[in-house]
Every structure is written in C-alpha cells, then in structure tokens.
Amino acid sequence: MKQALIIIDMQEIFFNYPQNYLFKNEQLVININELIKQAHEKNIQVIFIQHTSQNEQDELFEGKNDWKLHKDLLVSSTDKIIKKSKWDSFYQTELLDYLRSNEIEQLIFAGAQTEFCLDTTIRAAFSLGYQKNLLFKETHSTLNGVILNASDIINHHESIWNNRFLTVIDGETKL
C-alpha cells in the first residue's frame, strides 16, 4: 500500500512565543523528525501542509517569520509543500489531486493543532476515501484550551479517531 506522511502546520508561530508553545513542543519535533527520517529512507512521500493567511497583517501571511516551517524540521527538496488557508488541508488545495496522481492509498498524519486543522483534515480524508490511515502517539499537539488542557484535548481526539477515522499507534514510532 503506497503511503504518504502528511505533516500539518508545524510552523514557527508555535515555537516563537511562550503563549503559543505546543504541548511538549521539543519532543514533538524530535518525534516528527523520526517519522520524516523513516519516510525518506522508505521512499514514502512527505507532504508538509502550511497554513497561509490571505491577510497581510496576519502573522501567518506568506513570507513572515511565524509562517515558515519550523527551522528544525528535516525538510528535503523531494518533499511536497502545500499551502492552505482553511482548517481542512483538502479545501481549495492541490492535496487530493496530488495524492490521487501519485496513487497514495494510506496517509500517516502528524502536526498541529490536534483539535483544529489536524482533526478537520483527518475527517475529510476519511470522507474522501482514505480509510486506512495512521497516527502515532506523540506526533501531534496543541495548546491548552479554555476548558481542557492540551493533554486532555489530545487524549480525547485520539479516543475518537482510533478505529473510526484512523488507527492510533501507541509505542515505538516505526513506519
């Protein structure tokens, strides 16, 4: 089964300011880089999704420092970068066409934020026919919310996703 690793919104905005730090952000980058290394070794396509605002005043406007992919990610020249402007990585982007033209059958998800862009994209992928997807624990994260802390948000979403929208893999991060 041909796979693609999709890494959503791992951008500098989540690393530049303490109020925006993702839960366990340093370990998150290490874990995602481990997935990237393995994907590159196994010739699995790596796709970075980059949230891009249309508003020049926004910190995620294309070209601004906060908009850039995190500097420590192992981005290769063979990786695909797709810009999106909404929570759904498929909405008005080339992602679906790219996956179909490359005959990708299974998606491996990672990135931020758990309850926003990651959740929306995981559910959209399932509805679009990608129903055997994977997610490794500790390869996605979010911020503390008003009602729930980041850890609870992550656990809640994993419990909803697992065996419905994808398979959550607990243990060693091994593709």
Automatic annotation (TrEMBL):
Signal peptide: none
Swiss-Prot/TrEMBL keywords: Hydrolase
Hydrolase recorded as keyword: yes
Domain Isochorismatase-like residues, every copy: 4-131
Gene3D superfamilies (UniProt xref): Isochorismatase-like
Keyword check for Membrane: no
Family: Belongs to the isochorismatase family.
PANTHER family in the cross-refs: ISOCHORISMATASE, PEROXYUREIDOACRYLATE/UREIDOACRYLATE AMIDOHYDROLASE-RELATED
Protein name (Swiss-Prot/TrEMBL): Nicotinamidase-related amidase
Organism: Neobacillus ginsengisoli
